[in-house]
Design a protein that fits this description.
The complex is a heterodimer of chains A (about 140) and B (about 190). By secondary structure, chain A is α+β, with helices and mostly antiparallel strands. Chain A is built from three helices and five strands. The relative contact order of chain B is 0.23. The chains are: A alpha+beta (about 140), B alpha+beta (about 190).
Chain lengths: ~140, ~190
Amino acid sequence: MEDLKPLGLEMAKSLVTALGDDPTVVEGYGKGAIVGQTGELEHGALWHVPGGYAMREILGGAKAIVPSTKKVGGPGTRLDVPITHINASYVRSHFDSMEVGIADAPRADEILLALVMTTGPRIHARVGGLKASEIKGEDGLR
Amino acid sequence: MKAKIRKIVTFVEETHTEMGQAVNPPTRRAAAAAVIENPFAGRFVQDLTELMEIGEELGALLTERAVTALGIPGPSAESYGKAAAVGENGELEHAAALLHPKLGTPVRKVLGKGAALIPSSKKRGGPGVSLDIPLGHKDAAFVRSHFDGMEIRLHDAPRANEILVAIAVTDSGRPLPRVGGLTKDQIRGEDGLR
């Protein structure tokens, strides 16, 4: 888990760069892992601490739990990375996900690690619930 | 029932051995999925109430199917998750209408409790698209042994005017969990987090 912290930070920085180099525009996040076929699902669980820590660090102390998913699979396996608001898990407009995958990964002895960030709600969000403008920001939930 | 259901499929997955080590008792998870007609396919409709009500119906139906498949009483369930894949003539927001406003309450009714957020994912795709249902402990989102996901796939769904909706329930966490963090015997169960 410690070994993955620098990688997590580098990936989180790259994401912010890809989104325009301003961490304040980031509103949603998520993480995931695909373990190659000679590994265990449990090896994917090693990503929880470094992946979450890295994004919180880069985003300046986001409060909500980072939603996640994981699986074992071969090259080309797809993964739906769940996404929620960075400061309040219950913000309904930001419940989302992003499918990721790489044609030649993970090979049998590899792990594909993913972080995802978004800059806003779903397009045409209109199913009510807690709004981003209503976040109290105390417990990471509301 | 408001939902026009084409089919219901239930998946049960048991892991007996992991990296040569016996998993005893086996970890088990079930997902129940319904393929429904999307009442708003192909047109923009502002008010999605109908899909919210369908979500409420499916919350009860699919959770009951999943716990029945595991052969456990609802309160014995340990983790849960939900997801939807919208056929190509629908909006991502249609998945949100099914999953978020009303689906959770009947899920929690079947399972007895459920203080934690129900983790979710959504996407748009064609028949055979893979759908990963994220999983988290039902009473405390930070229980690390139960962070997981279950992939499902139906070769013939969702068709363009359909939505695939799924609920996953487990009676256990990952096989051989050993990355620390909050354990299920430490759950306080007050805030849904710890």
